[in-house]
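Onboarding guide, step 5: your first structure request.
Type a short instruction followed by the sequence, for example:

Predict the 3D structure of this protein.
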Amino acid sequence: MKLDTKTLRYLTTEDWRVLTAVEMGSKNHEIVPTPLIVQLSGLKGGSGVHKSISTLAKANLIARMKNAKYDGYRLTYGGLDYLALHAHLKRSTVYSTGNCIGVGKESDVYVVASPSGAQHILKIHRLGRISFRSIKNNRDYLKHRTSASWMYMSRLSALKEFSFMKALREHGFRTPEPIGQNRHTVVMELIDAFPLRQIQSVPDPAGLYAELIDIILRLAGFGLIHGDFNEFNILIREAETKLPLPDAHEKHNELEPPGLQSPVQLIPVIIDFPQMVSIDHPNAEMYFDRDVGCIKRYFERRFGFFSDEPGPFFIHAKKLASEVGVKRLDVAVEASGFSKKMAKELEKYMQAIGVDGDGASEEHDLDEHIEGEGSAD
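The system replies with structure tokens like these:
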């Protein structure tokens, strides 16, 4: 769905209280009874609440359900968007919203600005966009899903992404800087980069390949497997490296000016972490091998590069994570608030709707990021 913020500035304090009341009631009710909305809002006098309900319904932030057994409303994704944006505005992580730069199967990505005018990325997780094939293959699981449960899964996905991005960034991995997270949204740094899938050639395929394999192994050393490490989720940023030219007394091309030459250095940045798993996960070896295989196949297909070295293999990655003194980020993230229970709930959903990595989904999640610009409470 499209993010429409034109009504945001016109909502009153009472409107926000009522919208929050509908969200609170949604925890236990698919359709929140109107009397409960009045109670949870804490507003005196029912007329003011009903006026706010009318305003919110006209803006499609809440929806009245037809044929319901009682009078009530449900929170829409638009309403959840407004609540998240309102929180970001109060925290000064977002000041204004700009263009949508991508729509994927599981998220939408927008350019936003901070109060200082710096551009960032707002990623809105929207789990629940399900293909007909997913519904056909997973009827038993999906028939019990409600709009409220999709929103809860979207919150988990955003929390997981923010938590892992923060932990990885703090331990030297190149990721967008995580700026804020609220409900189903993440605000992150806008990277001036291109997805690897858009790059037709590189000056040193072997060097870039080795660096990407090293990232997979470094992740494993911290107890993590990306789970979807492919050309869609790797951004390539260009940086100039100043190197001195040969001494004037040495032989060199007469047309080459004295001073410095500027070869381009390609710097990979990893994004998209909702499928990241612990190296102790029951299917860890499969995810690890798949990540390695994705890079091997892509480099052979796109750049004509094939590594003569076998592996790396999961048994070696497992040893890295078991070394004495190693910081286990899977454990650290769990301690920070994204629990094992949350991880299992989110993984079950991902499997049910067929989001299984390897760029295999019909609309890849991070196709969204950047057509010419990089990625991204």
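Each response can be followed by summary notes, for example: Confidence is low (pLDDT under 50) at residues 131-136, 254-261, 358-377.
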